[in-house]
Fold this sequence. Notes:
Structural class: alpha/beta
Number of helices: 20
Number of strands: 19
Oligomer: single chain
Helix content: 40-55%
Largest sheet: 6 strands, mixed
Strand order of the largest sheet: 7-19-10-6-9-8
Distance between the termini: 47 Å
Amino acid sequence: MPARVLWIDDEIDLLKPHVMFLQSKGYEVITMNNGVDAIDAIKNQMVDIIFLDEQMPGLSGLETLYKIKEIFPAIPVVMITKSEEESIMDEAIGSKISDYLLKPVNPGQVLLALKKQLESKRLESERSTASYQQEFREIGAALSPNLSFKEWEEIYKKLVFWEMELSKTDDEGMKEILRNQRDEANLLFSKFVEQNYIGFLRNGSDNEFDMSHTVLRNRLLPILSDDVPVFFILIDNLRYDHWKVLQQRIRPYMNTLSDDVYMSILPSVTHYARNSMFAGLLPSEIEKKYPDYWIREDSGQFKNQNEKVLLEECLKRFGKEPNYTYNKVLNNSFGFKILEYLPKMMQTPLNVIIYNFIDMLSHASTEIELLREMANDDDSYRSLIASWFEHSPLLELIKSLTGQKAIVVVTSDHGSIRIDNPIRIKGDRDTSVNLRFKAGRNMEYNPKDVFSVRNPGDIFLPKVTITSSFVFCRQNDFFVYPNNYNQYVNYYRNTIQHGGISMEELLVPYAVLQPR
């Protein structure tokens, strides 16, 4: 069905060549020479776009625009005028016109305005699809378990970019191709991790990249000074694609100085990864050096209750004065309360702020049916995160820092992945409950299905018991016990979890920003 154009101009007869040109391009064009008749017309028939003359006798163009927007706010309106007065442009733009053309207009300008408003999504979709087809071949040719960490970082960033680009299109076939390529990449990334993980931990700072226990030492501590306050914002469970969603909304207020990833340790959960980050040590090293601060897997206690003191010990150990603020935001009211502390923070070298919203959202989207339906795929999940951020005290803090002399770091402790494929496992009552990793003894599973570590000390993890071991899921797998197998599979499938091996969980965003 051809797009229907309504053109309103008191000299419409003089525009007949333009009308005929649009008709030759397949558009249906309705013409009116005054605003009153035009408003009556659109009440009786739908139009896709309106061209509106700004200077008309009787009901002016701006008055006509106001009435149109009152009745049909979603119809795009292109204002056409002889006037170059800035006040008129400001008023028209403030009235939510879609485009602005100066007379005399030529047919090419009119056609371009139409395509921008009516066909841009289709044209962008076609362009994105064609571009990804080329990139698909290049990524496919590059995939190998023998890549370096930096090469995996680049592949992951490309996959995230195309996932977000193709989410704007309706090409489900191309989206499925991308999902399959991401699955293939995750399989090879899992092999890369399994083959190299122990070596990475033993190398420590000799690696060409950072891990949970080295990221603060190598990135944060060197930029601490008494001259410029640093705001270290850790958003629990923030993936790289989630960061890109936030970055779009931060851009008006902050310049991005660096935007890359580091590698979370295993298990990719808060208890291990964040404690390791703040302590600057691996979990078994924390247990040995600070036995009173390490909470055992089977303790039943809140396992991150000592992260603040671990951070303080880390600062002391590396010769930094422990002059810092530390706030954990669990609700919006406290988030807004932090804004009152900003003058004090500007006088403090390090300000650590932890936001738990995304982690809380991932758990809630498993347990609450309404949220589960609202976040039933990664694109809708990103939309929920974007909506939260746009109304959050965190964005207000970012805005408040505009024009200030400060450094802002946005990062996380681990990411997450949408799980789909159940893996059978058996364990006793003391086996840990996480869906993406298990710690315990006498566990039974197919060794081909998991990354197993018989001796936790090999990967610097404390032993739960003398005979305990760890097993980790790869890709989008999750552990399920044989009892009530189908019930648990149906309940947990397509939920967002973490703790295992995937690019989404282990390649954690780390961005450094500067207020504009």
